[in-house]
């Protein structure tokens, strides 16, 4: 029951817009993560590249408070006092910058509750470049404890190295445990009961040689590991728990996996594996995965050629979302039409903020698209700029639009803005 390739979701929507300020326009290729957004209850929180963090009232988008985070504010989640709370009690911000700061702010006032600088563990930048800055790449919470993964990259000639730490924080900000490796974490996810934490490692070029580790959340002890078993340092793109199983998108072999206890492989599917097109071997990375209630969705990214990065051709499964059932059979698939920075999810709802499709440079690909995990496309909001971050909570959807200027056109499209609306 595959979807029709290239079709748009049925309902075109228009989300409210609130300008955020100034940011350098993106260019033809997708840029690194520069913005963040989260929504819960009556609050929508934005994080900006200059460190500005603003809590907005969800109904009016008027600011409740604004603070300046010590780093670029590139990740946000919220904490509640208990699982039944209707709104957030605190806002957690992940930073990329000199200190790689994690900070927790009171949701009502913006007052900082605590701060932790991950650079104390993973080290400071050895070069004045964004790629060398300490970077908190992922946050997860069970409503009580906070989990985070931070990394730093360095290079000396041909020698490349990663430094990374996974953290468990108690509510007062004290570190309960850490898990350190010389690999590059890219995603973390908690199981439903909050007993286990899955950590996906994207690049393994040192002693740590496993794309996935599963940790016991009380102690940080290692429970089990898994790896696609491929050559090279590329391993895992994303991880997602669904009860006792874990879905994994593999950068090593460009396939999707469903794993049982101990890493036993339930099934595997080809997503954007190496394919011959016009005499070239092409592939695309499966960058995102989401599993819920026996269904698993994977999202693929840009096309690359095996022998060289530049190619005029496109992999047939690039920029695609594909959902499978518990047996690994395809339920539906659809194009997302451009690079998806991050996947926002809530229950059976998936939201894809779509940025550049740099090979075709078509501004009509710029949009926020949302899908039902079981049935497929449900809505789209087209943007003049590119969508680079999204969040969904119940019926509320939020996204960040950034301006873009294609290198061969010179026209600035869109603006730096928060977009908010309802899925109904």
From TrEMBL:
It comes from the Archaea. This is Pyrrolo-quinoline quinone. Transmembrane segments: none annotated. Residues 1-27 are annotated as: Disordered. Residues 8-27 have a biased composition (Basic and acidic residues). Residues 50-249 form the Pyrrolo-quinoline quinone repeat domain. It comes from Natronorubrum bangense JCM 10635.
């Amino acid at each position: 029951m595959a979807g029709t390739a290239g079709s748009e979701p049925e309902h075109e929507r228009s989300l409210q817009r609130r300008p955020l300020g100034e940011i350098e326009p993106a260019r033809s290729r997708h840029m690194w993560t520069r913005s963040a957004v989260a929504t819960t209850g009556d609050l929508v929180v934005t994080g900006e590249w200059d460190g500005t963090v603003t809590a907005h009232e969800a109904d009016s988008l008027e600011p409740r408070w604004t603070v300046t985070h010590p780093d670029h504010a590139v990740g946000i989640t919220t904490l509640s006092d208990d699982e039944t709370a209707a709104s957030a009690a605190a806002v957690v911000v992940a930073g990329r910058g000199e200190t790689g700061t994690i900070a927790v702010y009171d949701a009502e006032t913006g007052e900082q509750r605590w701060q932790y600088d991950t650079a104390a563990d993973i080290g400071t930048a050895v070069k004045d470049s964004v790629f060398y800055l300490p970077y908190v790449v992922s946050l997860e919470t069970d409503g009580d404890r906070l989990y985070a993964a931070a990394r730093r990259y360095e290079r000396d000639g041909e020698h490349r190295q990663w430094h990374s730490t996974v953290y468990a924080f108690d509510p007062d900000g004290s570190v309960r445990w850490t898990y350190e490796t010389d690999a590059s974490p890219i995603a973390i996810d908690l199981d439903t009961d909050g007993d286990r934490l899955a950590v996906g490692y994207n690049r393994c070029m040192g002693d740590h040689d496993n794309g996935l580790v599963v940790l016991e959340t009380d102690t940080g002890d290692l429970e089990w590991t898994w790896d696609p078993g491929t050559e090279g340092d590329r391993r895992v793109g994303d991880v997602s728990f669904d009860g006792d199983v874990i879905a994994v998108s593999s950068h090593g072999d460009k396939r999707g996996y469903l794993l049982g206890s101990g890493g036993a492989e339930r099934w595997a599917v080809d997503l954007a594996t190496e394919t011959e097109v016009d005499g070239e071997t092409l592939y695309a990375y499966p960058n995102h995965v989401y599993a819920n209630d026996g269904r698993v969705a994977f999202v693929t990214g840009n096309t690359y050629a095996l022998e060289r990065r530049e190619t005029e051709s496109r992999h047939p499964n690039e920029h695609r979302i594909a959902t499978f059932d518990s047996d690994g059979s395809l339920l539906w698939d659809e194009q997302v039409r451009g690079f998806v920075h991050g996947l926002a999810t809530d229950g059976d709802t998936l939201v894809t903020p779509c940025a550049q499709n740099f090979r075709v440079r078509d501004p009509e690909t710029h949009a926020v698209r949302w899908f039902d995990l079981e049935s497929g496309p449900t809505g789209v909001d087209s943007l003049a700029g590119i969508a680079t971050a999204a969040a969904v909570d119940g019926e509320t959807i939020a996204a960040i639009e950034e301006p873009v200027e294609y290198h061969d056109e010179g026209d600035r499209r869109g603006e730096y803005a928060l977009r908010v609306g309802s899925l109904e």
